[in-house]
Amino acid sequence: MKQRKSALREEIEALKRRQILQEARRLFFTLGYHGTTMDAISEALGMGKPFLYRHFPTKLDLLTELYDQAISMSEDALNRALASGRSPETTIRDFVRNYLEVGVTEREIVTIFFRESASVPPAKMHRLNEHKRAFDKSLTDVIQGGIDQGRFSVPNARLSVYALVGMVNWS
Q1: Rounded average pLDDT over 90-107
Q2: CA–CA gap between residue 56 and residue 115 (Å, rounded)
C-alpha cells in the first residue's frame, strides 16, 4: 500500500513537471526566454510561484530541461534510423525523415533550441556539445560506411554530415 502511494505521488510530481515545462515551452516560444518571467509561467499555470520554484528553482533550469528534451528528440530520431540495420542510404533517408518529423511536430522546442543558445551557460553548453559530437560521429560512421561500400561518393563524411544536418535544420 505504501509503495502504491509512493508510486502515485511520483506520477503526480512527474505530471506537474510536464505541465510546467509545457507552459514554459509555450511562453519561451512566444515571448522568448528573456521576455518570459517566472511570474508569467506561474500565472499561466494558475499556480503560485512556490509551486513553480519547488519544481524548477530558476528559469534557467526550465530552459536547460527543454534543451535536454530537444537533444533527446534528435538522438531518438537518429537511433530509430540506426536500429533498422539497413543500408547506409536507407539509414540516412530514415534519419532525415525522423529528424524532419521532430522539426515539424516539435516546432516550439526546436525554435527555442536554436534561438536561445546564447542563454545556456558554458558548463551546460559543454555537455550539450558532447551529445552533439556523439550524434555527429554516429552519422559520420553511417556515411563513411556508405563511402567504404561504394554507395556514397562524397569527399568527406564529416562535412557531409554537417551539410545534411544543416539542410534539414533549415528546412
Answers
A1: 94
A2: 21
- Judge contact between 52 and 40, C-beta under 8 A: no
Distance CA 162, CA 120 (A): 22
85-94 contacts at long range (C-beta below 8 A, 24 or more positions apart): 87/146, 87/151, 88/142, 88/143, 88/145, 88/146, 88/149, 88/151, 88/152, 89/146, 89/151, 89/152, 91/142, 92/139, 92/142, 92/143, 92/146, 92/164
* Unique residue bearing C-alpha cell 542563454: 119
Nearest-angstrom CA–CA distance, 36 and 26: 10
| pTM (predicted TM-score) | 0.83
Query: Does the pLDDT of residue 53 top 90, yes or no?
Result: yes
